[in-house]
Design a protein that fits this description.
With about 1050 residues, the protein is mainly alpha-helical. It is built from 32 helices and no strands. The protein has 5 domains: about 110 residues; about 170 residues; about 150 residues; about 170 residues, Talin, central domain (A middle domain of Talin 1, Up-down Bundle), CATH 1.20.1420; about 250 residues, I/LWEQ domain, CATH 1.20.1410. It is found in: Cytoplasm.
């Protein structure tokens, strides 16, 4: 006994498994196998014994094996359905080789295909258990919100249902062909798996209906015509199968088969979903089945053994009768036999009566428990009803809020009418929901009176709860759709306004470009005139130098004749020495040939060692791709692009080094250096490509990994060609270059689409915007200087529009694109603020503007200048002297802006009339009336002030949102593609930039204090100085 306690439960389950899969047509009992899967949390022991079964040679064993696998997948542990890949191959290879023996071969093939389909489906959708008993929420979560995923899931459920129905039709067809009876052992062996098929089909039918209604809510009906036809075929096949199974005696005791409706659901009508009833399959408990099997006699009799036993049956009965009542007498009494017969019938009737009483008591207890569960479910549904009422009230409040918000837009009146009609439809549905709840209460009362209909009422209750949830989801979906439609209309209007503003900005930019081109052409003409004068002076100087050179040439000719004589003598002496040197030269040439051959061998050996090391580096990189530790690594597409570009450059250098080595094989230095750099960069590209693939989508990741492996293969092939002298000259890295270019293109595709301005253009854009801003400030200073007439202000300005930035500056702007866009935005804001300040000053002087506009413009210039300095401080060097000068200039700009604000307020105080009121001749009633009117005016002004502050807060919030998004993302959100000529909105609360107005004549301006004019000019001078410092940094 002690030894048996220590035996593993898996070993204890082995006899049951072997007995279950014997080669005989008997029904299986799988309780211990199912319990064993829950104990070991899997089916590894089952598979370890199943591998040794004779599946290819015995069709009945294969049929029982499929039945056992199907049963434990449904009722066993959830890890059973997650079978290893080798076991699936074993299942297919073993069962597909079965020859059709006694009709089981075809059934086994269909059953194995069904099991493979089931395993693939539940492996892909692990949220849905193998028993398919998942709630609607799990189904919605599995399908997701992407309509493509819903479409694919529907097709997979259709395939699942087809496999189930094909197996069921084949089993029933064979039973009809062989005229088998469901009460025989062979017939029950074939019919037993159909219990699991009925359970699967009931859930799959419900899933199909749910998914098709969801597809019809999102896609047009013509697109789903094929889905509807396929569902109708499956519906009729499933209904025929369930009707046939319901008429069989075998299923009546084991399973309660549901009934399908007379006609399939109408998916073109959305309200038909409320009429759908989920088919419920009820299976009695195992204890009840065991008690029925104990009470009932053995129904199955082996026909082969029946005939011999019939001959011995009278003798056995006679022996039992003699033992009980003694030997028979000579007389024969029929009454004694009748009495004994009646007694036996009484005993049988008593036993049946007790059995009926026990079953009745058991049914009574079951019905009481079901009534209690229904009462609890009714309470839950009441609570659910209350929650639904609260949610409906919240939805009504949201609809009212939507209506109040949509009244602000006069162009959306038609949408409001649709929203009201939809809200009335939701109210009608809510009334229907209340009516259904009343029906539920009446049905519950009927349940208390008629306990025999508990199962059907349970399904009705579940249907009502699903309808409540579905109605709530439809209400939420309709409200969300109305909200989205209103938001889309508002976005379209805002998009049109932004488009008009951008067109206006483009026109202003074109005007500024034309002015700048005119100025540059005038300066070019002046430079040509000055160059002509310089050329004339250069011509005079050259004529003088030519006369001097002629005199020098004559003296040099004399010296040449003397040197020629001396050289002739030297030549004779050299010829003698040449003969001696030629002999020595031959000796050196032979020695040099030997050294050259040795050098060639050493250079080739050095090349071979370098190639070997390069192969090792690339092979290590390839091995890293399959390393489990490398799976958690990741890399950015930008780094991959940099590595790929560097690899392409190294391949170009490698080609140059290879051609030089082929021409001059005594020097392999350039090829060795190129190979070293190439191997390291290629390995970096392969590893970076694999790491980047870990963060990409599945298709991009597969393509990127495949190209990395192709790059490694081509690189190793190229290196192998370099090892051999025969293939050295024909080695070509073009295939490597093509593979790296593919990796580069994929990296560029994976790169975030946040920057549409090219790297080579970004630096030019910065300089153009700086130049445009400086030009705007200079124009503002010029206008103020003209107005002052006597004040001359010298502005030093370095033109940056005509000078292209160096490559290092352009690369710096390209690397820091987000910072560069912020710098461009701030520079635009400064230029626009300067222009706006001059326009506001003109309006104030002409008594058409407000002093507050000057104050706001001063604050805007100070804030934008601070943003420029902060951006420059982030990217400037720690010890930069120009940064200190820039900060000093920024402080001066802030001081000048403060002076402008102070001067503006002083002028405003001088102009405002502060005279005392005349109260003479005013009575008490008139004073009281004036006081009340003044209070009303104060309240109105306070309300207007509060509304303007809220409006200002909204504008600032939207400005911050737009400023925080990259330029190209903002353009994509508006449905446009950003270009170098379309820039982001300036960092200003104003929605658009006004054009520069023509300045009026000075005679129209009244006299104003000169302090503010000087402050304006000095403020703009400081802004110009600040921009010169920014461009130098």
């Amino acid at each position: 006994n002690n030894k048996s306690k220590n035996v593993s439960p898996n070993i204890l389950g082995r006899p049951t498994q072997v007995k279950s899969m014997c080669d005989s047509s008997a029904v299986l009992k799988l309780d211990r196998i199912i319990l064993g899967t829950h104990r070991e949390k899997g089916a590894y022991t089952f598979w370890s014994y199943a591998v040794g079964l004779p599946l290819p040679s015995s069709a009945i064993v294969s049929w029982k094996f499929c039945h056992v696998l199907h049963k434990i997948m449904r009722d066993g542990h959830r890890n059973v359905s997650m079978l290893p890949f080798e076991f699936r191959n074993y299942l297919l290879k073993s069962i597909f080789n079965i020859i059709c023996i006694h009709g089981y071969g075809q059934l086994v093939c269909l059953y194995s295909k069904l099991l493979c389909t089931k395993m693939e489906f539940h492996t892909k959708h692990s949220e849905i258990p193998a028993s398919l008993e998942a709630s609607d929420e799990v189904l919605e979560r599995t399908a997701g919100t992407d309509i493509n995923n819903v479409f694919q899931l529907t097709v997979e459920v259709f395939d699942y249902m087809d496999a189930e129905l094909r197996l069921a039709e084949a089993v029933l067809r064979q039973l009809n062909m062989s005229i088998a009876i469901s009460t025989l052992t062979s017939g029950q062996c074939k019919l037993a798996p159909l219990i699991q098929v009925i359970q699967d089909c009931s859930h799959l039918y419900h899933y199909t209906v749910k998914l098709l209604f969801k597809l019809h809510a999102c896609l047009p009906a013509d697109t789903l015509q094929g889905h509807r036809e396929r569902f109708h075929e499956q519906f009729h096949s499933l209904k025929t199968f369930l009707n046939k199974a319901r008429d069989m005696i075998y299923f009546k005791r084991l399973i309660q088969i549901p009934r399908l409706p007379d006609s399939p659901p109408n998916f073109l009508r959305a309200s038909a979903l409320a009429e759908h009833v989920k088919p419920m399959v009820v299976i009695p408990d195992e204890e009840e089945l065991e008690e029925q099997e104990e009470d009932e006699p053995e129904p199955l009799i082996d026909v082969s053994e029946a005939q011999p036993s019939m001959a011995s049956q009278p003798q056995v009965l006679g022996d039992i009768f003699d033992q009980a009542f003694g030997p028979p007498s000579d007389g024969f009494d029929d009454r004694d036999l009748q009495i004994e017969h009646l007694k036996r019938e009484i005993e049988l009737l008593k036993a049946e009566l007790e059995k009926i009483k026990g079953e009745a008591q058991r049914y009574i207890t079951q019905l009481k428990s079901q009534i209690n569960s229904l009462e609890t479910e009714l309470e839950e549904q009441r609570a659910q009803k209350q929650r639904t009422l609260v949610e409906n009230e919240q939805l009504r409040m949201e609809l009212e809020a939507i209506r109040r918000r949509n009244t602000e837009h006069e162009s959306m009146q038609t949408n409001f009418v649709e929203a009201e009609s939809k809200s009335q439809a939701t109210e009608l549905r809510y009334n229907k929901l209340k009516e259904k709840h009343a029906e539920l209460v009446a049905n519950h009362a009927e349940l208390l009176r008629k306990s025999a209909d508990t199962v059907k009422m349970l399904s009705v209750t579940q249907q009502t709860q699903e309808e409540i949830e579905r109605t709530k989801q439809q209400l939420a979906f309709q409200v969300e759709r109305v909200r989205q439609e209103s938001d889309m209309k508002f976005e379209e209007q805002r998009f049109d306004m932004d488009k008009l503003r951008r067109e206006l900005e483009e026109k202003n930019a074109e005007i500024h470009k034309v002015k700048s081109l005119l100025q540059t052409s005038e300066k070019a003409g002046e430079q040509l005139n000055s160059s002509m004068a310089a050329l004339k002076t250069e011509k005079d100087r050259l004529t003088q130098s030519i006369s001097k050179k002629d005199a020098d040439l004559s003296s040099l000719m004399k010296e040449a004749h003397l040197k020629e004589y001396s050289l002739q003598q030297e030549r004779d002496r050299t010829i003698k020495e040449l003969g001696e040197l030629q002999g020595k030269l031959k000796e050196k040439l032979s020695h040099e040939d030997q050294l050259q051959q040795k050098l060639l061998d050493e250079q080739f050996a050095l090349l071979q060692a370098t190639v070997t090391e390069a192969e090792n580096i690339i092979q290590d990189a390839v091995a890293t791709l399959d390393d489990p530790l490398h799976i958690n690594s990741s890399s950015s597409p930008d780094y991959l692009i940099s590595r790929a570009e560097a690899t392409l450059n190294s391949i170009d250098k490698l080609q140059v080094g290879h051609s030089e080595y082929v021409k001059r094989m005594r020097d392999a230095g350039s090829l060795v250096r190129a190979l070293t750099k190439f191997s390291h960069l290629t390995a970096d590209t392969i590893i970076s490509g694999s790491a980047t693939a870990h963060m990409a989508h599945t298709d991009d990741a597969d393509r990127l990994t495949e190209h990395c492996k192709t790059c490694a293969t081509q690189s190793l092939q190229y290196l192998r060609n370099l090892k051999s002298k025969a293939s050295l000259k024909g080695a070509d890295p073009t295939s490597i270059q093509a593979a790296v270019q593919k990796i580069l293109r994929i990296g560029q595709d994976l790169r975030p689409k946040g920057i549409d301005v090219g790297k080579e253009e970004l630096g030019d854009v910065v300089d153009k915007e700086m130049a445009a801003t400086s030009a705007a400030i200079e124009e503002a200073v010029r206008r103020i200087d003209v107005s002052r007439k006597g004040t001359k202000l010298f502005i030093r300005h370095r033109k940056t529009a005509g000078v292209k930035p160096s490559s290092s500056v352009r690369e710096f702007y390209a690397r820091n694109s987000r910072w560069t866009e912020g710098l461009i935005s701030a520079s635009k804001a400064v230029g626009w603020g300067a222009t706006q300040m001059v326009d506001s000053a003109d309006k104030v002087v002409l008594h058409t503007g407000k002093y507050e506009e000057l104050i706001v413009c001063s604050h805007e210039i100070a804030a934008s200048t601070a943003q420029l300095v902060a951006a420059s401080k982030v990217k400037a060097d720690r010890g930069s002297k120009k940064l200190g000068v820039l900060q000093h200039a920024s402080r001066n700009v802030n001081e000048m802006a403060a002076n402008v604000v102070a001067s503006t307020k002083t002028g405003q105080d001088q102009i405002v009339d502060k005279g005392t009121m005349d109260f003479s001749g005013m009575s008490l009633i008139k004073l009281k009336k004036e006081e009340m009117e003044s209070q009303v005016k104060v309240l109105e002004l306070e309300t207007m002030l509060e509304n303007e502050r809220l409006h200002l807060g909204g504008l600032r919030k939207k400005h911050y949102e737009i400023a925080g998004v990259p330029l190209e993302e903002l353009a994509q959100d508006n449905g446009l593609r950003a270009s170098p000529h379309v820039t982001a909105a300036p960092s200003s609360p104003k929605p658009s930039k006004p054009t520069l107005m023509k300045k009026p004549a000075l005679a129209q301006k009244p006299n104003i204090p000169p302090k503010s004019t000087v402050t304006f000019s000095f403020l703009f001078f400081k802004c110009c100085t600040l921009f010169h410092l920014l461009s130098s940094i």
